């Protein structure tokens, strides 16, 4: 069986476990995903999110016409243990996961725009009194005559968020295959409505 699938983040809610403890969970609409084609001997390409043909290029539309499936907005590759068990056009649903299973979730984090060093890197900042004019600035960043440059990787102000983030230990709380819903413990990357990839560990 395939080792992962795509989903759309719906939002966070609160549920209660068997002991009555409140848990914060993220609800993800997982598919159904459709197998578009097999790539090599151990990977398959799946599509998620129906879209209009006018929004895709002709080479991409050719993939769907060859597979005999409707066009999809997002395409991703996932490993598969037994390629013979998966057929082109097959639908993948949330029942490939089980409650209590630990999965990896990959998504694009929320973009926060240009941020200073205090917000972006948790710097402490300078003095607020006694005539100081260095409150939220990074301070000195370079050297003297040698090497006379700023090293790459220096923690400085810049664009924050909007990057690919992977959480490696997310626990599945509940699975609803009939509704294509997956309840994951805690927050996952991205804004509501964002596309995430869920993989088995």
| Biggest beta sheet attributes | 6 strands, antiparallel, barrel
Poorly predicted regions are none
Distance between the termini: 14 Å
Shape: extended
Question: Any overview of this molecule?
Answer:
With 201 residues, this protein is mostly beta strands. The chain folds into two domains: 4-111 and 166-200, Translation factors (Elongation Factor Tu (Ef-tu), domain 3, Beta Barrel); 117-160, no CATH class. 7% of the residues lie in helices and 41% in strands. The protein has two helices and twelve strands; from the N terminus they run ββββαββββαββββ. The strands form three sheets. The protein has a six-stranded antiparallel barrel with strand order 1-2-11-10-7-12. It has a four-stranded antiparallel sheet with strand order 5-4-3-6, with helices on one face. β10 (164-176) and β11 (181-185) form a beta hairpin. The chain is extended and about 70 Å long. The two termini are 14 Å apart.
Concise description?
The chain has 201 residues and is mainly beta. The chain has two domains: 4-111 and 166-200, Beta Barrel (Elongation Factor Tu (Ef-tu), domain 3); 117-160, no CATH class. It is built from two helices and twelve strands, in the order ββββαββββαββββ.
